[in-house]
Design brief:
Helix content: 25-40%
Strand order of the largest sheet: 7-6-5-4-8
Largest sheet: 5 strands, antiparallel
Order of helices and strands: HHEEEHHHHEEEEE
Number of strands: 8
Low-confidence stretches: none
Number of domains: 2
Number of helices: 6
Mean pLDDT: 90
Length: about 200
């Protein structure tokens, strides 16, 4: 529990401690994973656990912890009958996060973006572009990574693996891009990290 408490904002530590005492679940802090910030697991032996990426951003860590605790809360009440990010989870997440939505825990700019996000929380904080950008501001990396959403239509970019694309247009949620070498169309998340050309 000590490592978890050290990973959240200092002003939130007592509230987090009380939550973890109320919802006893094994929490493991892992190395950074590109595809997710955390997860809730129902293990084959019947136990449950949470994994969260180690993070230098205490706000991201707290949001992820509450996100995963909401899964645990829903599991305790509904078992496997509830959808992973359905109405039950949204309500549980809102209920858990609301007491933390204070300016002494989250900076004002982040607090207001997070309040808007909580009206209809997404399956991942990264799916909310405004929240993604607001959280990125508090990451310790020296410069924010450019995103597909930052580019103009027709602008080319590449990925770290060298594949090159051109941005075509924004759909409802995703951004349509064409791979230059193959001509195939791919849908990118608006905040997918890229290297502009």
């Amino acid at each position: 529990m000590d490592l978890v408490l050290k990973s959240v904002p200092h002003a939130a530590q007592q509230q987090v401690k009380a939550l973890l005492e109320h919802y006893p679940i094994a929490i493991k802090i892992t190395k950074h994973r590109l595809t997710k910030h955390g997860d809730f697991r129902m293990n084959p032996n019947g136990t449950t656990s949470i994994t969260i990426n180690a993070s230098t951003n205490p706000y991201r860590f707290l949001i992820t912890l509450l996100h995963e605790l909401a899964h645990f809360k829903v599991f305790l009440k509904y078992g496997r009958r509830a959808r992973p990010h359905g109405l039950e989870w949204k309500l549980a997440f809102r209920t858990l996060l609301l007491p933390f939505l204070q300016p002494n825990i989250f900076p004002d700019d982040l607090c207001s973006v997070l309040a808007r996000h909580m009206k209809n929380p997404k399956a991942s904080s990264d799916r909310d572009y405004n929240l993604f950008k607001a959280l990125q501001h508090w990451d310790e990396e020296s410069e924010p990574v450019p995103c597909v959403n930052d580019l103009h239509e027709g602008q080319t970019f590449r990925l770290e693996n060298g594949r090159r694309f051109v941005k075509i247009k924004k759909r409802r949620v995703r951004i349509e891009c064409k791979e230059i070498k193959t001509g195939r169309i791919y849908l990118f998340s608006p905040h997918a990290g890229i290297i502009p050309e």
